[in-house]
Amino acid sequence: MAFPEKDKYTGMRRMILFCMILVPVIPFIAVLGIGYYHFKTSLETSTLATMNRIVEDHRQMIDGFLRERRGDLAFILNTNSYADLTDPARFYNLFTQLQRFSNAFVDLGVFDQDGIHVMYQGPYRLVGIDYGKEEWFRHVLQEGYYISDIFLGFRRIPHFVIALKREESGKTWVIRATIDSYVFNELVEKVRIGKTGEAYILNSQGIFQTARRSGGNLLAKDPDDVHETKPQPGVRTFIRKDARGDEFLFATTWLQEKEWLLVVRQETADAFKSLRSATFMIILIMILGGVTITVLAYTLTRQIIRRMQRIDVEKQQLGRQLVRATRLAELGQMAAGFAHEINNPLQIMKSDRALIEMIFSDLKKKGILLEPDAKDLKETLAQLKLQIERCSKITQAILEFGRKSEPTEQDVDVGAFISQLTSMISEKASVQGIRLKKEISEQTPLLRADPSQLQQVFLNLFNNAIDAITERHGCEGGELLVQAGPDTDGRVRISVKDNGAGISTENLKKIFAPFFTTKPPGKGTGLGLYVCYGIIEGMGGTMEVESQRGVGTAFVLNLPGSDAGQTQCEPKES
Amino acid sequence: MDKMRLMLVDDEEGFLLTTKKLLERKGIQVTTAASGHEALEKLVGESVHVVILDVKMPGMDGVAVLKAVKSRYPLVQVVMLTGHGTVESALEGLRSGATDYLMKPIDIDELIAKAEEAFVRWQIMEGKIRVAEGKAPDKKQ
Question: Would the pLDDT of A415 be above 60?
Fold first, then answer.
């Protein structure tokens, strides 16, 4: 029977635990997950937007710079005839004018249609050199316009050239300016996003046109190969591992003025650093929250199950008490019926014995009976009388229990009542060497009971206690304690405690059952406590027993108080 | 003065027999009846002073017999015989005019004592009635 009970709790525990963990965990994880997702998307969007903006802004600036320098040259080319340009004093003025437009201009040269350097203003002596076979010169004759890639030149400073052609009345000439690229070098190289964010320019072959902060010298080949797409308008963003294996977020755009690719890149780990710390926090919260939920669920479940177990145990105890009470009642009815049936034959036996006795004395008077027989017969008659009396006492006691007569209830002063009772047994107790002690609380309310019934109960309890004490102690060292005091709801609690032999657990179960006795045959009927129980229950009280073998026994009675007693006590207490 | 004539009413034959013998040995005239009906029948023919009546009997129970006896023969003294569980019936009997009650199992001397008491009562009542009849001879019996 213990196993299914245990299973029941295990199943219930699992069920409660499951619900208690699952129910908070689902929304908990959902909240964290949704929060993470939204944070991630918005972070990615804003990071990409930032990079797009930087790329686009810088492209416009560089394009603008190139466009302005070309415009400067075009202005000079268009406002001056070939004759003007080849006039040394005028050419010098034009060059200084150009340098006023922008100090990026390093030199200025004029070439005739064969590529011969006609005029030059700048740090070198280049006049007279033939550039007719040069790539850039052929290009400018074809297209009318040319911008070179970056080169270092003699001074190891990054430069590029812009060349423009003019045709007039069958004559063609070209002007070319070298431009220091520091302006947009600075623009690009100064870009700094987070720790690793940087910008650089590649030409169409993937050669660095500006130095890269994280490694990548000017004019070196870019190891990352991000230039491979065809020039097209707009910004392209992508994530790619670089040559070293680090993952980068790239944003690239082609310039409009020249086939150069402007690249902005940032390590993904750096760009999404806050995402990573958020992820870390989320995992931490998940673990802490999960542990908290689990621990709480475990604790609560254990408490719930424990409480349920306690309730079940109490229920079982109540059930057992009910069964005992019912069985006592049934036994009572049975015993009463039994006693009734026995009473009639007893009556006849009694009458018959009386008849025999009468005949016996007649015979004796007449002298028919002789002495030894007469003596035996007389003894037998006496024995018969004794045994019939004994039977009749038993039936009377049983019927006493079953009887529902109307007791004469009245208010009883517990202190006075107990004193009266103890004085009744004090002589017997002192003979047995028993110390009688009374502890009557002043707050004890008045009792509502039939005093004669109550007296029967207490004398029974006292006699049992005295027997138990003499069984253990003989004639010395016994102690009998009567305590009385208020209980809850204006009721009275009286206990009778002895330090006698005590009652075994086995016997304790049967103690209120009729005919249960541990005394030798003929000494006790086994009805004393049975009757007491009936009386106390009839009064609306309860009677409980606690006992330990070799320590002693305590009978605890809870009895209804009188209403008058309650009202009397209240002013005393307050 | 009359000698006491007693009627024992009980459903236990053994009790009736023994008690009758005992009482007769004490010199008391005894009639027995094993049921309420028998008792009422016998009362018609015999003059009885005291009836010892068991409360618990099959058929007509003691209290019913008592009421019948008292209504027909108001002078007859009835002593109720009761077990422990039927004290209430005995009390009801007293309210309905029984003279006294005896608790089973009874002692024969106790029974005789109560019967004698009842008989004395009968004599007193009888005497009063006789005096009353002397003053008003037109009254019955």
Answer: yes
Residue A173, phi-psi category: left (phi > 0), alpha (psi -120 to 50), beta (remainder): beta
Asked if residues A222 and A216 have their Cβ atoms less than 8 Å apart, the reply is: yes
Phi, psi (rounded to 5 degrees) for B60: -80, 125
φ and ψ of A129, to 5 deg = -75, 140
Q: Could you tell me if the ipTM is greater than 0.85?
A: no
A447-449 and A410-412: which strand pairing? antiparallel
> Are A343 and B22 within 8 A, CB to CB?
no
Q: What are phi and psi of A124, to 5 degrees?
A: -115, 170
pTM of the model: 0.48
β-strand pairing of B100-103 with B77-82? parallel
Structure tokens given for A389:
């009396």
Residues in contact with B28: Cβ distance below 8 Å, sequence separation at least 6, in sequence order: B3, B4, B6, B112, B115
Residue recorded with tokens 């019936």: B89
Cis bond upstream, residue B105 (ω within 30): yes
Whether the predicted pLDDT of A2 surpasses 50: no
Q: Quick one: DSSP state of residue A148?
A: -
Taking the C-alpha atoms of residue A410 and residue A542, their distance in angstroms, rounded to an integer, is: 18
pLDDT of A4 reads 55
Give the DSSP letter string of A361-386: HHHHHHT-S-HHHHHHHHHHHHHHHH
Given an 8 Å threshold on Cβ–Cβ distance, is A399 in contact with B108?
no
pLDDT at A307: 93
Task: Give the best residue of A334, A341, A347, A527 to mutate against chain B (max B CB count within 10 A).
Answer: A347
Smallest Cα distance from A505 to chain B, Å = 34
Contact of A149 with A209, CB cutoff 8 Å:
yes
Instruction: Give tens-digit pLDDT for B73-94.
Output: 999 999 998 875 566 777 788 8
Cβ within 8 Å of residue A448, ≥6 positions away: A409, A410, A411, A412, A539, A559, A560, A561, A562, A563, A565
